[in-house]
Every structure is written in structure tokens, then in C-alpha cells.
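Dear colleagues,

As part of the handover before I leave the project, I'm documenting each prediction I ran so the next person doesn't have to rerun anything. This entry is a single chain, and its sequence is reproduced below.
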Amino acid sequence: MRQAREILWNKIFARPAIPAAVYMACVLALTFATGSYLVSFAVTAAVLVMVIKERSYCRQYVTFILLTAVFSMLLSLRMAGRLNSYEDTGMTDCEVYIVSAQHKLNGRSSYTAALPSGAAAVINIDNDDIFISPGSKIAVTGRLSLPSKATNPGEFDYRKYLMTKGVRYSIAAEDIVPCEQTLLSRAAGMIDSAVFRFRSWLYELLISDLDDGSKAMMTALWLGDDSLIDRNVRSSFTLTSCSHLLAVSGTHFSGFMAFILAVLDLFDRKGKHKAVLVLFCLATAVMTGFNDSVTRALIMSVCLIFARDRLSGMCIALLVMMTSDPFAVMQSGLLMSMAACFGIICWGKEISRFMIIRNIPEKIATAVSAVIAAHLGLLPLAGVAGIRLSVAGLVCQMAGGVIVSIICIVFMPVLVLRLAGITFASSLTETLAELLTGVTGACADMSGGAVNCGRAGSYLFTGIFLLAVILRFPPGVIRKALFKPLFAVAAICAGMIVVTLGAKPEMELLFIDVGQGDCCLLITPDSSLLIDGGTYEKGEVIAQVLDWYGIRRVDAAVVTHWDGDHCGGIAYLYGNGRIGKVLCPCSCVLGPDDDGHIEDTVGISAGTVIDLSEKARINVLWPYSVTDGRNEDSLVMELDCGGLKCLFTGDIGAETEEKLVNSGAIGDCDILKVSHHGSRFSSGDMFISRASPEIAVISCGRHNSYGHPSRETLERLALHGVDIRRTDLEGAVRFEIKTTY
């Protein structure tokens, strides 16, 4: 025991970077596990106090860390108090103080404002003429509300995102009037305006003459503004887990600096032009918009330039970021950045050396090894972050990382060429942008076999990561003591994943929360089908759900009838190439002037059978012929999967229910999709009694103006002993069909 202790203190804590590394690891791990930065500060402070007590030679270094941690904790308490400050939601008319501003090249601006209570709110404005500078005080009239939260798998959780930034509310502004501008705010406004004009000038010089796809891609990679990215392109990056490539990070910064470093090496072989590098980093941050990811990359780059070793630089960067923003450790971007940097530091040289031995050119080996090592560092976050694993995705992440680095490396040469009036640089830019888009698109098309291993996957990847870290330790007591337990944990988690994959359901039914509308996604091992899609605006939500499940293109979609709250989302997805074919009871009523237009539809009626897999099929029960698409003519369909039956009823009312019951078309079912969002004119006693469902699913919007579901319908269902599930109360309603009946 004493020998192990001596090894621990003499070998591990002998270097100043190690205590900082322990601190960093504790902060990230505990914050991620508990969701509380206060817990991480308290525990790591206790650990470092023991370090100080045990050895004096690292006291100054660790004292600096402790003082920074205490200071950050005080800021955290203050910000936590602001986050928990309550305001009455609803219409508001108050004066707010603008804390920060982000201006997009698509004309949108986002402002973070401090409310009178001290709580923070975000204000989004679609107006090129309004340009508010940080430090200004404005009078705003609008609706104050809590941001929307995710209610479907894969849906972007805007509320959680803002909470990690210390923002509690959002304001839908109707009127903004400047109240007060101090000398400082006027100066900030001049700087803010100058930066935006500079970025706009770069856009006009380098990007504006490219085709639309290349224009959007280069705007994201060179200027840090992804507002122009097309939904289909964004979907490709999501499906291949490459979304991080669209946000400026350390990868982009290193690419931008590569050209400068090459030039500096011509004059200074020792590379001591640190001041030049720092100025270039600042210029790059200005160029790319100074948003959160850019600021993080800037701080880490500057710290790495001045640090004795990269590990110390990374730790100091973490401390600086926490001091400036205590909520930083709650943001996934920081976790991923730190994890990727740690992977490069830990394994980059070894992987590069291994590749060079096998006659791979040194520069190529260095670039590729950095990408591989970064992904090794990201392993613990893979399962928790919902990253879907596939060979195509892994190839895309590595290839995409290399292409993005090349795009950033050529920025300076392209800028020089365009300033000189040489236009062939545009062709080079377009070629690289099309290459990146093509690679992600091709890999996204092959991502159907991707696996989301869930929580067991995160344990497995974390175990593999820790094993790789332990193997970097020198042979000794610590390595011997930890290797076997970690290996056992990783093996158990691998077994859990194998069992999980072997027990895949025959079908998954997901009643997606689309507000006041209907939408159900059916997934089998062989196919996917979408029944209705809510309003046109909800098409984006459905697209995010499809991305979560790794579905690039739904095989078919069924429109039960052509009301906007059923067909709108289908039209959105069809227009974006996310649907194979559309089945409906009548011709499409959407014209070219409507939101979305579906050109080709297939008419179906009673007697049509839709085969989903060997054990799953849909039988159409109503209408008996092609109709004009009224509510009473909605498609009524029975899903039969291994004996379990689910009845979809569209928006039919009592009139059609009576016809179906009298004709004998309706039989017992297990799950009933309640007609017309729970309207009191549907789901009559006779119909419920004949269908005899165990579970009823009601799809409706929260606080909708129609009063759905009605009290009468709820009472009728309860009287028949039906278990009621509602999307307005619980979000998406999910069922797995695993066994036969």
C-alpha cells in the first residue's frame, strides 16, 4: 500500500500539469454525471486540498486552481440565482439590458437580455434594420414565455439549450424602442457594427458568387454562420454524427493557423512568433462571429500557444472559460472539445508514429492520427449524446474532419487570390464544398444500419476509453489494479448491447407530438411508414425524429385526409425528399401556392393492403371508394402486427363510426388512435364498445382553442376501462411490439 502511495505522489503528481488534469477530469465527469457544477466544484476542491497537504512543490500551481474554482463557484451561485428568478409569463412591457448580440447573415439577430428581476431572456428578431448593441437598454413589448422543450425523441430541446447558457425565458418581441445608450454601449455598438460589416465584406468577396449549396457550406465553415445551411444538408450531417463540423471549433482554428505557421517557419524555424499567432487567432474569432464555440476555440488556442505543455494549456483554458461563464461546463460543446483535445494529447503521437512506420507520409499521418485520436477521446460521450454508430458514420466523421481542415487551410490562399482578382479560387472553393456535401450525403444514405446503443453503449465506450487511458500508464500497481475491473465492466456492457440488439421489436409505433394534429411513425426491420404529419411547420420536428432513428427517407406516407393539421408535415417532408411515395383517399388538394405541393399520389380505399414486413400489414377499412377528402372520408386503417392490432381513424365522426360498426368492418383492437383529437362528436359509446381497445391515444395540442380532448370523450373512454395516453400531456407516445399474440 505504501509503495502504491509513493508511486501515486512521486510519479503522477510530480508534474504541474497532472493536478490540473485531475481537476479537469473531475469537473467534467462530475458535472456530466450529476448535472450540477456546484457538486463538481466541492468535490474537486476537497481532492486538491489533499494534494496541497501531501506535497508542497505543486502548492502554488494548485492554489491558483483552487482560487479560480472558488471564484467560479461564487459566480455560479450568482448566475444560478438569476436563472431561478421568476417572471410572470405572458404579455410584457419592460426595460431590459442587452448583454450580448449575435447577427446572422440571413438577416436574423439574437439578443440575450437581462430582465428587471435579473433573469436572462433571449430575443430573436427577423429584421435587418434593427441593430442593437450590447450594453444598450431598450423597452420591449412582446410575449414572455418559457422556451419550448423537446417532447419527441431527437427533437432539439431549445429550453435545455438555453438553460445551459444561463437563459430562462424567451421574448417574442412585437415592438422595440431604444431607451438609453451609454458611452460604453455606443463604443460596443460601433465595434459590433464594424465586425458585422467586415464579415459581410468577406462574404461578398469570397462566397457570394458560389452556387447556393457551396455558399451555405463555406459561410458555415469560414464565417461561423450556419443559418444558410439547407435542411437536407443539415440532416446528412446529423445522420452521420458530423454536426460538430458545422460549428467552428479547434479543428477549424488549427486549419486556419496552418498557413500562418507554414509562413512563420520560413523565417523562424523555432516558431517563436507567439504574438503573431495570438493576433491571428483574434482575427479568426472576429471573422467567425465570436459565438460560443468560436470563443471556446479561441481561448483554448491561445492557452495552448503559451502553455509549457498541451495538457496544462487545456486545463488553463477550462479555468478561464469557467471563470468567464460558470455555465460553460454544462454545455455539450465544451465537453466534446475537451474530450477531443484529451484524445489527441493522449494518443495522437502514438497513432502517428504507428502510421509513419508503415510508410505513410508524416504530414498525412499527423492529420489522420489527430482525427482518430480525437474520436477516441469522444468515446465516453457517444452513447449519451445519442450518436448513432455505423461504419459509414465513422468513415464520414474521419473523412469530413480531414476535408474541413483542408477547407480551413486554403482560406488564406483563397483570400489572397481573390484580393488579387484571380477568380479560379472560386472553383477550388466550390469543389471542396461539394466534396464535403457529397461525402456526408453518400454516408447518410448508407446509415440505415446505424445502431443507437443507448445507456449500455455509453458505459461500454466509457470502459473502452478508460482502458485506453490505463494502458498509457507506465507498468505498475495502479495499472495492474484498474485494468481487470475496467475490462470486466466493458465486457458486461458489450454483452448488454448484444442482448439488446438481439431483442429488437417486430415494430415500433411512435405517435409523434405535433401539437394540434396527427402523426404516427411505424418502424419495422424492413420498412418505415408515416401516417399523417401535422401542420407544415411541424415538418421540421418530424425530420428531427427521423434523423434520430437514422431514417434518411421514409418508404411511404399515408395522408388520411387533406386537412392542414394532417397533411402539412407530409408536404414539408415530401418537398425535402424525405418521403418515397404518398398514399391518400383522394387527389392532392395542395396547389403550387400552398405550403408544400405533392405532385404524385396513390389513391387507396377499403380493401387495400399495405405490407410492412412478414409479420406486419395494414388493412384499409374505409372509405369504400375515392372521395373528396372530407373528415368523414378519412382513411380508417387497421394495423396487424403478430396479432396485435392498432386502429387508425383519422378525423371521422359519429356518422362514419356508425357505418363501420353496422358493416362489421370494425373488430377488437389493442390500441385505438382516437378520432378527431378527442372531439365530443367522435368516439361514441357504440364504436368504443365494438373496438374494445385497451389503450387509446389522443393526439392534440396543449391548451388548444378547440377544447380537445372533450370531457365527454374522456368520460366515455374511462367508462369502458380504456387506458388513455395523450401527446399534449406526455409528448410522444411510444409502443414496442416484441411478441406475437
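The longest strand covers residues 90-103. The CA atoms of residues 80 and 477 lie 42 Å apart.

All the best with the project,
I.
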